[in-house]
């Protein structure tokens, strides 16, 4: 990959993270946009986005389709993690009240 290709890839992945955070915030305004951006730009999130984006391109998706697929996967993974954390907290509260 040329330096320009690397820069273009990094820009695309950053845009996907930002758009996913903004989209989620617009749908659920009570979610803190800065917190979403911070979460979606952590190394593991960016690695996941980059991998999904490249996978989509390799499968013949357009750049926009690959970006949408990657962003959707990130939001789903975030939502699943939030639900799991909430369920754990509920279990801990229930156990503490017994």
What's this, in brief?
This protein has helices at 3-27, 33-40, 43-58, 63-96.
Descriptive report:
With 98 residues, this protein is an all-alpha fold. The chain has one domain (3-96). It is 85% helix and 0% strand. The protein contains four helices and no strands. It has helices spanning 3-27, 33-40, 43-58, 63-96. The radius of gyration is 16 Å and the shape is elongated.
Rounded radius of gyration (Å): 16 Å
Number of contiguous helices: 4
Order of helices and strands: HHHH
Which of globular, elongated, flat, extended, rod-shaped describes the shape? elongated
| Averaged pLDDT | 93
Fraction of residues in β-strands: under 5%
Main beta sheet strand tally, sense and closure? none
Number of strands: 0
Q: What's the end-to-end separation, in Å?
A: 58 Å
Instruction: Classify the helix fraction into a percent range.
Output: over 70%
Q: Structural class given helices, strands, pairing?
A: mainly alpha
The tally of domains stands at 1
Unreliable spans are none
List the helices and strands and how they pair.
Layout: H1 3-27, H2 33-40, H3 43-58, H4 63-96
Jot down its keywords.
98 residues; mainly alpha; 85% helix; elongated
